[in-house]
Amino acid sequence: MGALWIAHVTVTDPEAYGKYAELAGPAIAKHGGTFVARGGRFVQLEGRERPRNVVARFPSVEAAVDCYNSPEYQEALSHARGASERELLVVETSE
């Protein structure tokens, strides 16, 4: 089964977060991830609103978690820490 990686983000340091974005895209692609949505228009119906929402599709939950734990993504993530407030989850799809 496939999986979706869903991130809700408030960027607090655009310059540092830009470096994260530059490195995260290739790391996600390396693990079979493709972007479905990146910061587009949204309507917050419940919960805490974050101005940036990102969804990536992966071949499996394991591939998404492997991506997160990979050295490439952890390097990218080092630029997001302190430059953003984030929630990130991976959910298995029913497809």
UniProtKB/TrEMBL annotation:
Protein's name according to its UniProt entry: Uncharacterized protein (DUF1330 family)
Positions of the DUF1330 domain: 3-93
Pfam families according to UniProt: DUF1330
PANTHER family xref list: BLR0684 PROTEIN, PTHR41521
Organism, scientific name: Rhodovulum marinum
InterPro entries listed in its UniProt record: Dimeric_a/b-barrel, DUF1330
